[in-house]
Design goal:
about 120 residues; alpha+beta; Photosynthetic Reaction Center, Chain H, domain 2; 3 helices
């Protein structure tokens, strides 16, 4: 996976699925607050009414002109989304993890699992 320090260089880059189909463009990265590792990307999708879908970064790879994620484009279409100027709420976190079949555990004190930078 790419280094988190380089994320500014990748903003607005194409995000493609595991077979190279374009999902959208990279908007931001959400970090796992327990590990401080990049966990999800928000990807801008839609031609007219744009929205942001969250896509897991496990297994993601970078190429010269895109970020390739390890999920299929069709799975991202039904992923939980937020408005382009919105923010992921703590209440939405379990649904995001669940959509991709990932286990969700809040922090030991009940704190959020994902934080945006």
């Amino acid at each position: 996976m790419f280094e988190a320090d380089d994320i500014r260089d990748w903003r607005d880059a194409a995000v493609v699925d595991e077979v190279g189909e374009k999902i959208g463009t990279l908007e931001a990265i959400y970090f796992d607050t327990a590990t401080d590792e990049p966990a999800f990307a928000t990807v801008k999708v839609g031609l007219v009414s744009k929205k942001l879908v969250l896509v897991p970064l496990a297994g993601a790879r970078v190429a010269p002109k895109h970020l390739r994620v390890a999920v299929n484009r069709s799975l991202t279409k039904d992923a939980p989304s937020i408005d382009v100027d919105g923010e992921l709420t703590a209440a939405m976190e379990p649904a995001v993890f669940g959509h991709y079949g990932l286990p969700y555990r809040p922090g030991s004190a009940g704190e959020r699992r994902l934080g945006r930078r």
